[in-house]
Prior knowledge:
The chain is an alpha/beta fold. It has 5 helices and 18 strands. It has 2 domains: 42 residues, Monooxygenase, CATH 1.20.1280; 174 residues. The N and C termini lie far apart (68 Å). About 4% of the residues have low confidence. It comes from Salix koriyanagi.
Amino acid sequence: MEEQGRQKKKDKKPLSPSSCPINNLDDGCLMHIFNFLSPIPDRYNTALVCHRWCHLACHPRLWLRVEQSAKDLSEPGVFPSIEKAVSAARPGDTILIAAGGRHLASNIQINKPLCLIGGGELPDETTLLCSRGSDSALEFISTCKLANLTVKAELGCCLLHRSGRLTIDSCILQCEENPLDYLSCPIISTAGGNEAVSSSVKTKGDRVSVSQTRIEGGAKAVLTNGDLTLQQVRVIYARTFVYFWFDVDSQ
Length: 251
């Protein structure tokens, strides 16, 4: 009996992607299914299954791509800079920022729900650089998510949160060390303050959620204004880095 069982296992051949029942669905149905997957790692991994899935998983309907080295910028959904990708994005889009090199990001205002994700395996493989003289790399006045990215600011702040729900997951936020580091802060939240924010983008439940993120340099990890305060802080000390989990929410 055992020998027969072993023989049956040997006789079984792995199914090819083309013979799987899911591939009987048309492209529109498959893309609708892929849309429910988290961009990283699930949707990213679907692109490795076969040529058809790669084409559908990378379709601009599912996410936009920022590639500085892209030779053919006429390809739909591919942009040479983060600013152009944000400008072209629709609410709810995901922007995949290619790994390698440094992407300039200075005072880029995001006023619609977006998700920005680094395309590398680790966050330090995709770097957003905010040059000196800029207030921030990214300014958020809508609900957004950042994941798997490194954001560096020479002076000022990495992320400026004005309104909405901002989620920062598995990122690295770095402020350069210099004699004026008391003027710099990785995260600044002015939500709930007295600053005038357009009623079209002002939202209820403004907050910042940070998880598994390295924060380096600056006077404070986060500077708040208005009625938001730092809550539920958790810190893990590694050999060379400190990882933070915390929320910035109303009292």
